[in-house]
Amino acid sequence: DESDMENVFNFVHDHYAAPDKDKFGIAKGRNVIYIHLESFQQFLLDYELEDENGEKHEVTPFLNSIYHGNDSYSFKNAFHQVGQGKTSDSEMLLENSLFGLPQGGAFSSVGSTNTFESATKILHSQQDYTSAVFHGNVGSFWNRDDTYKSLGIDYFFDSGYYEFTDENTLEYGMKDKIFFQQSIQYLEQLPQPFYTKFITVSNHFPYPLDEENIDIPAATTGDATIDNYFVTAHYLDQAVKEFFDYLKETGLYDNSVIVLYGDHYGISNARNKTLAPLLGKDPAEWTDYDNAMLQRVPVIYHVPGVTDGGIQDTFGGQVDMLPTLLHLLGVNTQDYAFMGTDLLSKDHDQNVTFRNGNVVTPEYTIIGSTVYDTDSGEVIGNISDLPEDQKEEIQAIKDKANTQLSTSDSILQSDLLRFYTPEGMKDFNRADYNYQNQME
Ligand code: GP9
Ligand code: MN
């Protein structure tokens, strides 16, 4: 009930990380453009795939250039934190700084009914942003068409807004290059500043190859899922480049912050031993630690014009992305029920909680009851066998992770945000949103 909100704020106020003064508001008033990199793992960045003749192929040259730029705050130790809700859990994390649920997809189970204090609602209330999501697949997938109303998303352009042909379609929807091309007609009509998200699909399991878009040779492990993953990621890289070209041509680029992120793994743990040799690892020595390390995904805040960016060592996860973004836009996050903290704050909490309760910190990787050294991957020991003070240290890390997850779960499961309206939040009504015949 209402008093449960007190517990939430005990955690939230304790956990809050104040913004770095030099970064707060540096992107104020700019458009926000999220580019969702489907199933994209961090190891693809800077990866060079060697073909049978020993020739090397850079898989994602464009994303690499963005990742390394001084005009990007890029995180090399950022992890996805999704559960069974996969893509939609990543959206829950990004839009609300809340985790998906322990079971099933939260978008499906509580998305239609709960009250949210989403990115969209905050930015609309505080800075008059207009919001839109673009996705070349059916709107009901993951219950988006309904959940987005609860999130206060003004426009949702789903498959009904795109011209599908046999040639421009793959299993999960429109091919990424065509998707971006066809999105522009709608993007152009949005009042600025806008908050937008482009959800790509081509780089989705099982990574079907599309003859006309094969531009690098596949890998040769013999597992088609792994082999083709590099090829479809390369296509996604080209699609993102083309979209950036458009943004630059129209001048939108300079007035935007572009956030690129991977939603979750593309290669499952069951396949990682086959992937291992491509990462220079011996499959015989592959451990759960290695699986955990592979849950890294790109998290990049590209802010054209800044010069103090580059690759950051900070550990963090998707739950941290909303506070980071809002601080860049000059919105303080102190009074929101966020589970994450600003990645660019010196007080940022670097413990990364996975949805299953495992934790990665810069020092320890805790998987079940086994503790690894995050740097070396060596097993430190089973929790129960550790010296007393270290055991306490690890237990405290685990407890905090569990509190973070249970706090998030209590918000979603008991719909707690209906009891709390942050100052300055406007009134939102689901019934005011309709995604049919928009822009006509
Ligand atoms: C479908 C797409 C895929 O619309 O977003 O979702 P996923 O299977 O990756 O969770
Ligand atoms: Mn996905």
From TrEMBL:
Residues the record lists as binding substrate: 204
The protein's name: Lipoteichoic acid synthase
Keywords: Cell membrane, Manganese, Membrane, Metal-binding, Transmembrane, Transmembrane helix
Binding site residues for Mn(2+): 38, 87, 263-264
Pathway field: Cell wall biogenesis; lipoteichoic acid biosynthesis
Lineage top rank: taxon: Bacteria
Taxonomic lineage from the root: Bacteria, Bacillati, Bacillota, Bacilli, Lactobacillales
Claim: Transmembrane helix is one of the keywords in the record: yes
Membrane association type: Multi-pass membrane protein
Active-site residues, record numbering mapped to chain: 87
